[in-house]
Amino acid sequence: MAEMNMPVPPNSIPMRGTPGPYGAIDMGGMFTILKVRENPDAEDGSGWYQPPPGTLADLASPGDLQADGIDPHA
Q1: What one-character-per-residue DSSP string does 9-70 give?
Q2: What local confidence, expressed as pLDDT, does residue 62 receive?
Q3: Which of 9, 15, 26, 62 has the fewest beta carbons closer than 10 A?
Q4: Is 14 a residue whose pLDDT tops 70?
């Protein structure tokens, strides 16, 4: 099957995927990306949302796991 190389509008992401803030964004079918803005009237809307420091999940330390009753060596 031949690949269709159609022009993509500037406000679109190709269906084959595109880089996102945490890795590739792959799509199939209908798909929407919602851009969150703290103050939409004061921002231009370009670029990815930058979450405030300390608000993203991270790996738990062995001490944190033990505090929750989880054996980190299991």
Answers
A1: -TT---TT-EEETTEEE---SS---PPP-SSTTTS---S---PPTT-S--PPPHHHHHHTT-
A2: 94
A3: 9
A4: no
